[in-house]
Specification:
Oligomer: single chain
Largest sheet: 5 strands, parallel
Strand content: 15-25%
Helix content: 25-40%
CATH class of the largest domain: Alpha Beta
Length: 449
């Protein structure tokens, strides 16, 4: 695990000082991997693996280190002590340090991981650098075992070998290699007491399951690595095929692909392709999700919808299948746009210097009361360029907004007249005209990811 968690007890500070060539090979790996990046942010927890990475990186590629990033999960004195060790050691080595702290106390590994990665990604973006972690070959083996237990497909079995915007200089190094380097160079680190706790799945795999598998089938760890490498190659081939043959379209809403192209494949082919398509929008499909997508592709009617894990859904929309986040709940109530600014649900409105987008901005009459509410059945608006009113429902449909998203769509009123449907259409009353006082307003949907 990265960091400390659970009930804390006093950690043991190590300094041990003999070489069999492993330390030199490890430094060579670090120099080779980091040498291919212009700037890196080293993720360092204070544990042995990451402290070895810090030492080796400073020795092999000091000019590449933009910062050393450490994160206090807020789980007790042990976590605070570990972060302090990282700060003290990195500064003594002349490295810049970025120290993050959790705003709350998480109870699971997933919560800790999400908070940590949010901090690391934010730090890397700010410094225009790439995150480098201390994952080892043993971490890779354990990850493959855990994913196999969950019934993951080939894409998941690639695990840490899959392409990612993260550098892992120690991925070919074993824990014995790490131990040798620490011994030769006198690296100081702090034990994480939760590494001995069987409350966490990874620890049970490390302490119990993997040793049992090795006793029953000597060399099985090497077999897991070989399997993962094959899975990574297959993953790369599938990704290339998807890009060339399916050309999925990715935008702010999600990822979509033409259904007629998918229908050229049988169920097994679709089961390989869909995870690659979903991955383009950061969606990780579980086995059930893949099975449901295959069924939707082959028999779903227009408008059909299925739920996927992680807050995503798939929708058959016209001739395409769209994977996206579940739309926000229906917009309810009414909000006043005071001086052009206000909010309703996930929708925000702000006064702007001008009309910067013909769909998402409008010049609204400033001498009328401006309000926003969710559209209602029977609502009508006369679009710019039209002579008669049209149903708002039809305008939303024509704009490609399916039924689920329509439920949450707002309309803007000047007095009692609908003058603007953000992102869809506006009326003549929502355009700048000579001699009429207006306020230019821009609309954003905050969680339309």
């Amino acid at each position: 695990m990265w960091g400390l968690g659970g009930k804390e007890r006093e950690s043991t500070l190590h300094r041990v000082t003999t070489d069999d060539g492993r330390a030199a090979r490890l430094r060579g790996d670090v120099e080779r991997v980091l040498g291919g990046a212009e700037r890196v942010v080293l993720a360092v927890s204070g544990g042995r693996d990451s402290m070895v990475l810090l030492h080796a990186a400073v020795a092999a590629a000091p000019g590449r280190i933009a910062a050393v990033a450490t994160f206090d999960h807020g789980t007790g004195a042990g976590a605070k002590t570990a972060a302090a060790l990282v700060v003290r050691t990195a500064r003594a080595m002349g490295a810049r340090v970025e120290h993050g702290r959790s705003r709350g106390v998480g109870r699971t590994e997933a919560v800790w991981r999400d908070a940590r990665w949010a901090f690391l990604r934010s730090t890397a973006r700010a410094l225009e650098a790439t995150v480098a972690t201390a994952h080892t070959r043993d971490d890779q083996i354990e990850t493959v075992i855990m994913r196999a237990m969950r019934g993951t497909g080939a894409r998941g079995l690639a695990a840490l070998y899959a392409p990612a915007p993260v550098l892992r200089p120690l991925l070919d190094c074993s824990r014995e290699d790490i131990e040798a380097y620490a011994r030769v160079h006198g690296v100081r680190w702090l034990d994480d007491p939760t590494n001995a706790s069987r409350r966490h799945l990874r620890n049970r795999v490390r302490l119990d399951l993997r040793p049992a598998l090795e006793r029953a089938r000597p060399g099985i760890s090497a077999e897991f690595l070989a399997l993962s490498r094959r899975a990574a190659r297959l993953r790369g081939e599938v990704d290339s095929h998807v890009a060339a043959e399916l050309a999925p379209r990715v935008d702010a809403r999600g990822v979509q692909v033409a259904r007629d192209l998918l229908l050229h494949y049988d169920a097994k082919g679709l089961a390989l392709l869909w995870p690659a398509v979903a991955g383009r929008f950061g969606i990780a499909l579980d086995r059930r999700g893949v099975e449901r997508l295959v069924a939707l592709t082959r028999s779903g009617r227009a408008g059909a919808r299925i739920q996927l894990s992680g807050g995503f859904e798939a929708v058959v929309h016209r001739e395409r299948i769209l994977l996206r986040r579940v739309p926000p709940a229906a917009t309810t109530g009414t909000a006043r746009l005071s001086d052009g600014s206000g909010a309703l649900g996930a929708w925000t409105f702000r006064a702007a210097a001008g009309e910067d987008d013909p769909l998402w901005s409008a010049a609204l009459p400033s001498d009328a009361e401006l309000t926003v509410r969710g559209w209602q059945p029977g609502d009508r608006m006369t679009p710019l360029g039209a002579e008669t009113p049209r149903r708002v429902k039809g305008l939303l449909r024509d704009a490609g907004i399916d039924a689920a998203r329509r439920a949450g769509w707002p309309v803007v009123l000047a007095g009692t007249e609908i003058v603007w449907i953000p992102g869809v259409r506006r009326s003549l009353a929502a355009t700048a005209r000579s001699g009429r006082p207006v306020v230019c307003v821009h609309c954003d949907l905050l969680d339309d990811r």
